[in-house]
Structures
1.
Amino acid sequence: MARQKSRGEAMDPQARKVEILNSAARCFMEKGYHATSIDDVARALGCTKGFIYHYYASKTDLFFDVHREGMDRLFAAVMPATQAVGGPLAVLIAMLTAHARAMMDHHAFETVVAQGVQIHRFGATTPDQRRTLDELIASRDRFEDLFKDQAHAARAVGQIVADDISIAVKMMLGALQWSIFWYRPEADDGPDARDRLAARMVTTIIDGVRARN
Amino acid sequence: MARQKSRGEAMDPQARKVEILNSAARCFMEKGYHATSIDDVARALGCTKGFIYHYYASKTDLFFDVHREGMDRLFAAVMPATQAVGGPLAVLIAMLTAHARAMMDHHAFETVVAQGVQIHRFGATTPDQRRTLDELIASRDRFEDLFKDQAHAARAVGQIVADDISIAVKMMLGALQWSIFWYRPEADDGPDARDRLAARMVTTIIDGVRARN
């Protein structure tokens, strides 16, 4: 009798890796890096531990790849928006809206990215792991810089006011990224609802709430 | 030869408990709930494990008390601001400023509160633990309600505009609370610098960044 292949094992190699990453993102989100084992990820995916070790030498490597994928997805969402038509402020708004939407679309991955920030700050890692983590955090800084550069451009033409661009961008990104704590994909009403939510989030951030006279 | 008393054991009971909570907040912040042991907390405090078990039956109870203390400190910071002079918007600004400052003053505790939100969402807990966690999350909701009520009051008199108060408040609080990921108490220049940072954060949130014509 032929051994029944699990879902993960039946797919082509690239699709397998995506399935592993999706499963791992969900496990790390739910239990955190420290309490998650390769066993948990295998169980959630319905495959063997060996199947995952074929792709990843360790849990840490797997965590790093989830983090990397989370950053890649943010860049992939926001980069097209940097080419939006309109002045610098219109581009900034398009970037923030794409970012807000990406936080919803890739909820588990972006939750893991936030965990990575804490591990970078406090984690006991090997020199090799440290190097990888430094790279991942550097890519976060580049991501933040995209918004800072755009905010500087918008300020240069008088479209935005902000004494301190660094603080302003931290408030904007923080407001969007904190959604990892309250956004619930399972209660979501689909892409249109996500777009409306993203638009409302960004309007509040750009215009504030004070009534204009 | 008399056994040398550790720092924790030499203090009065209330001060001891505060020392345990401070040490635990730091440990949970650094390693997360799952990877932290009572041993870690004892080692960080320079006391015995038994000393901590005298106050807390389990790591979970200790975690809950750190979470509770984190919420108490937020309420203690923000409640006086609800009595600030001026109209509803002035009060809202005072509350947000006090909140921003409290996030800096109690950085470790507020980081642990955020961990508690994730554990509430995903954690496997006993019915008793669940009840405690439900109460803690309910106190988070009451905290958010303070800001929603105030935002409604400000909107009622035309001082703020927001189609959706719930989203607007989530953006405000998220922007402030995301500071657990970037604020570094060890790089801090003291209370005045913290006040200036808090004021800048809140101005950005209330007024947004779009230039007013």
2.
Amino acid sequence: MWPLSCVAVCGGTHGNEMSGIYLAKHWLRDPMELQRSSFAVTPFLGNPRAIEKCVRYVGQDLNRTFTTEFLSSTEAEDEPYEVVLAREINQTYGPKGSAQAFDFMFDLHNTTASMGTCLIVDSEESLLPMHIPCPIYLYKLPGEETYSINSVAKAGLALELGPQPQQVVRADLFSQMRDIIACALDFIELFNKGTVFPAFEIEAYKITGRMDYPCYPDGEISAMVHPKLQDKDFLPLNPRDPIFQTFSGEEILYEGNTTIYPAFINEAAYYEKKVAFVKMEKHMFSIPGLQRD
Amino acid sequence: MWPLSCVAVCGGTHGNEMSGIYLAKHWLRDPMELQRSSFAVTPFLGNPRAIEKCVRYVGQDLNRTFTTEFLSSTEAEDEPYEVVLAREINQTYGPKGSAQAFDFMFDLHNTTASMGTCLIVDSEESLLPMHIPCPIYLYKLPGEETYSINSVAKAGLALELGPQPQQVVRADLFSQMRDIIACALDFIELFNKGTVFPAFEIEAYKITGRMDYPCYPDGEISAMVHPKLQDKDFLPLNPRDPIFQTFSGEEILYEGNTTIYPAFINEAAYYEKKVAFVKMEKHMFSIPGLQRD
């Protein structure tokens, strides 16, 4: 792997996730703390119009728009704002899959779920992110195309911190996110300067599917995340454990046959898709050593 | 005071505060648990269009729209949706200040602040709410006209539960809100049936003003609620205690001369007004006894 020369840090891919938005705005005013000797770091705001309105997105979710279909689409009058934006971002930091693309992109997110701090990586084959010491969530389903903003760079990851309400910035999470970026930039500096990172084994969580809310016949959700599941992200959920409580007070149990590890439990942004949590398995991965060519 | 015969319970005055919205929707499907023998209870959704979009409001804050100015305005083509709605709600549950108005209205709210459970009452002269056993926050500034949705009824209160992110329903807060409404309806039933509630002394918090976020010259906020103040609603804040942390890392201290009791600390909905918290004083009030005529 070659040394990295161009790194981007994006805040506000979702316009109501405030840690990354205020961090990126701060770095745009004063980029000093991003400076390293062996590479350049460019902070930017992902979705300026959504940030202005303090909403997740204006027309469609920007972070699902970096597919070949959208990136290669031709301009149309009625296309969503985020499709135009994705093509622009792809021109600036990509093009996706090309030699001119940025070497790495960090994308900063918050969740209302109690997920602590975790890295969201497309798959275990993304070698460099797998070496950063942090809990890891592998988001790509088998055969799925990458669709996230950081997929326009040659490598990248999303940083997910929670719980934090949408539209709110908490000083504690802001500091954590700032510290992790500082640590990750230091890691790239060491890599660029020839540090050898040996092979190792690591447990990581891999998505297997999504759990929908139960609904009334008219499509309205009819239950909430069970109080015993609330705030239990990344902890084991066993067959027959309670997962929902209906508004009338009944319990609904998990009907699967194996233990899973839920994440994004009760995430605000997933209500519109009626998703209550993401189902994950815990796997052991053998990560090869890492050294610059 | 006469017995109460008509009571309303409103959820969704703010369309992204989910405990009250899901409770009211549940009661509209199944009103059984609201039934009492001595009075009728009507659940309703405050701002249906904002609920549909899962936003606080569409045109302007409905819960600031129940003033004489708005309620007596004549229809205009370009008026905000909430002004039309306020006149309709005033017709159904008021008119405000009239003999036909509902006897009591409960209005259900959530906050992203760690305020636990509290009752928001216009002033200590609202006798009936002052007798309900719960921490009390008196919101009306001296000389100010009432402007909240429950002011269209002869008496009322807002129930404020937090912390809960906007657009999220947590089972624990949902149950608490349901229990408090059950308890308050039982209280009215006892009052109607002639129970004597003796006079007592109570400490309550009274608003004195608001604390704005510090800003850059361009108007953007330049600091966050200090980690030592975050989640400390209703606890004493003393002169020279830290209240803000700037994005560059400096501390800003409280410059007042007396101890205050902040509330709505880091409430998501107050960023647009650049309000970081509400300043309150703690006072002892002598509440006269209560008995039906």
